[in-house]
Structure formats: structure tokens, C-alpha cells
Amino acid sequence: MDRRLLIKLGTAGLAALTLPGAAKAAMAEGFTHGVASGEPGPYSVLLWTRYAAANDTALTAELSESADFARIAGGGTVTAAGARDHTARLLVDGLEPGRWYFYRFIAPDGTTSPTGRTRTLPAGPASAFTLALFSCANMPFGWFNAYAHAAARNDIDLVAHVGDYLYEYRVGDYPSLRDAVPGREVQPSHELIALADYRLRYAAYRSDPDLQRLHQLFPMIAQWDDHEFANDTWKGGAENHNEGEGEWRAREAAAERAYREWMPVADTRWRHYQVGDLATIFLPETRITARDKPFEIEEIVAGGGDAAAKLKRFAETAYRDPARQLLGGDQEKWLFDGFAASVKADTRWQVCAQQIVMGSLFTPPESAGWFGANPPDIVRRRVAAAQLAAKVGLPLNLDAWDGYPAARDRLLAAAQAADADLVTLAGDSHNAWAFDLSHDGRPAGIEVGGHSVSSPGFEAYTPEIPDATRVSALRASSPQLKWANTQDRGYVSVALTRDRVTANWHNMTDIRTRNPALSGTHSMTAERGRRAYSTT
């Protein structure tokens, strides 16, 4: 039965008794999914909640500097509308910079939401700021222990989620039923195509207690990657979309609408945040606005003939086509002008929190033997193609910035021209990376590549190969790579001070049980002005 019909009939409580946990949350009435905040500025913040009822419901939001709400510092009214899946977003202004606030929503009958906590950004001189970086949280693969660990900390100012907040696959595809963790079921069971599908999957993910807690305690800036739409999304489609699934534009619009309903985000596709005079954080969009279709090695060598010659010709021609876009002209201008304006304003760091790895990774020759003596035919073909590509200088992952070298050159050149102290943050790859970025033979900045919350990385595909062996081979084949972890799930905290940035990669002990313990942390530092990681 349709969920809204059940609500109108007053039978949602009875129906929910027979449904799995994620569906129970979607069927419930009242404040069903906690609270969240985002889009912080020095004087404003956006608040989010969901209140399910038979009709649209007017809610009152309150902010206070104390948990008892003795003095109300701001707020307003907002409607949880059925047309928006009963979600509500309210931008509250008139706040003080660099302050923690408590907030809550109040329903007409006097019931209140859980109390949330949020923070405005500093204005003027700022000496330190710490953000937590997350990406790639596939719920059936395991528990969101990275969220739980971060939520227990008291030294985080802002959370940045750079994509793959959820996954669109049908149950049993990724992960397989055999690999799925019991108790981590999602709804719907089929692949996400229509608006109702995406809404229900968000409801399932947002029923996770550790994700709810993270949202409750920290403001989040967020940007989608591909799985909020479909695997390997680009401006005209996606790898995981076919004609039988309808028009791509309809699916894209449904996915974007559900994202904006369920996330504490503004309606603009790209934006920036000013952390006093310490940092400008840019949040570009790399998937659906302007990205040209990714290259596929298998397509380049298809049709027989000399595969090596085909790849060599491609590497010298189409691969470096300056017309190929990732951000698009309008967004490039916004970002490049933003670098220059940030530096001109004497801001110490220019941080680009984007979705995909910018540093170059190349397939190691040794990796040909990492997949066992008799790998499946599809694995054998892909490994062979990757080895041929590496021999002609082509990188490992053409869906990352490595597949758009001219666009990357333009970005790094703009950072250099602005004299920016560039720090790029990335997700998507499921593994942890530290890159020194360079352009035209000169340092251009550093990259902090975050590992996934739960999605599998290199270790899942080469289980017999020790992490140290994989990392050593990758570093030997990839000169920009300074450090990597190809076996653990987790998150990164990035501490900015006036003279240095310190990245801390936090590795979770486990994701198959609910356990927020760490197995270790790796730290690396970059000094302002060097545009490279320190070697000591």
C-alpha cells in the first residue's frame, strides 16, 4: 500500500509492525528521521527535519546557545510539505559568527524533534578549524562506524560529505546477498529509478542511528557524486542506466529532487564557504552539469587489431582533447575567480572539497599477478587492458580527474596563477591517498583522498595481496602518490591552522559489526607556501 494512503487512513502504526526497520521509519508519523543542519555561514545556518502527517504541517524552529533553550537566539516557521516527502528546510539568519547553537523543531501539538547542535562559521581572524571528510557509504556492506566515531568527538567544526551518500543498486547487486551484512537491509529492494524509489532509499539510510547522530551534532556541507543518481553518471547518462529504464533526464531530475528534499543543502549546484580569514572551502559539482562521457579502455581497444597501437594513438589525441569538460566553462570561471578572490583577500588556504581523485594513479606492472591464477574472464580482460594502457602512459581510473587531463591542467594552472595554497579533498575511490599535485613541473597543492565509510576498496579484489605490497607498487608507478592505505574503511579529519594543514586518516577496526573503535590513525602535514606534503 502507498505510505501516504496508510498515513491518511491512520493505519501506519499497524502496518509498520510487519515491515523491516528502514520501512518502519518511512511509515512512521511525526518526527521520523531526526534533525540536520548545513550551509553554515558566519551569520546563518540551514536547519532540516522531517515530519510525516496526513497533511502539510507548519513547524516552528528555535535556536539557542544553551541546551535548555532559556533564551531563543533565532528561528522561524517552515512547512513540512507532503510534496517534499514531508521534509522541511529553513535558513535561519541573524546569528553570531563562530558560535555553537542548539536547535529544535516544534509541531503544532507541542511535540518536539530531537535537539540538534550546529555551528556558524567564524568571521575575521581565525586560528584553527577542523573538518571531517566522508564519502562512499554503502549500507548493506556494513555499519557506519566511521560516522559513529566522528560523532563522539568534540573537536570537529564541520562535516564535509563529498558523495556516494547512498547507493542506487537493487538488493543483491552491490553487495551480493552473500556479502551483505545482516541487519543492514535497504528499501526499496529494486534499483532506484523513480522519485519514490530515491525517497525511500534516503529514508532507509537516514534511519541509521550513527548517520542520524552525525547530522544531529554537526553542520554538514554535502555534494553528490554518481551513486546518488546511478553508477558512473555523466551529463548525458550513466553506466547504470539503459533505455528500458526510461528517459535519463527524468531519472536525473528525480534523483536530484530527492537529494534536495532529504539533505540539508542549498538549491545551487556549486557554492563556497568562508572560514574567516583561514580558509575558503569550494564545493564544485563534477557529475551532471558538464561532465563529458568517461572514456572506457575496453571501448577504445574493441573491434580487434593492434590494441597497443590503438591505445597509443588515443593517448596522443582524444585523451588530451582540451574541449573535454568536467566542470564546464561557467563553473570553471566561478572556481578560478574564487581562487583569485580568496588569495586577494589574504585567506590562508584554498580548499576544494570535490568528489573524485585528482592525483594521478597508474597501474603497477606487478598487479597483473594480483588476481589469482585463473581469474574470471571479465577480470582477465580488464587486467590485460589496464596493463596495456599503463605502458602507453594512461592512468588507472578514467572516471576520475585522470580521465580529464586538460580540465585538471586548467584547474591547477588557475591555482598556481592565483598563488593559492590549494588543498583538494576527494572521495569516490574507497581508498585513502595523499598526493602532491603539480602542474607544468611546479608544485600546485596537496590532495587528501578519503577512504570509504563502508564500500570495499582494493582489498576486496586482491585479497591475497598485503596492503604494503599494493601500496609499494602503486607508489612506484605513480610519482605524485606519497602515501596510501588500500585495505581499511574510515574517514579523515583535516585540521587547518594558519601555517599548516594536518590530515588524519582514521581507520576503523571493523564494519561488519557495530563498533566505532579505530585500528589506527595516519597523519601527514603540509606547510603553507610549500604546496606539498612535509617529508619529515
UniProtKB/TrEMBL annotation:
Q: Where is this region: Disordered?
A: 515-536
Q: Does the keyword Cell wall biogenesis/degradation apply?
A: no
PhoD-like phosphatase metallophosphatase domain boundaries = 131-505
**Listed Pfam families:** PhoD, PhoD_N
Quick one: signal sequence residues? 1-25
Establish whether keyword Transport is in the entry: no
- Residues of the Phospholipase D N-terminal domain: 33-120
Keywords in alphabetical order: Signal
Q: What is this protein called?
A: Alkaline phosphatase
Q: Which organism is it from?
A: Sphingopyxis macrogoltabida (Sphingomonas macrogoltabidus)
Traced from the root, the source organism's taxonomic lineage reads:
Bacteria, Pseudomonadati, Pseudomonadota, Alphaproteobacteria, Sphingomonadales
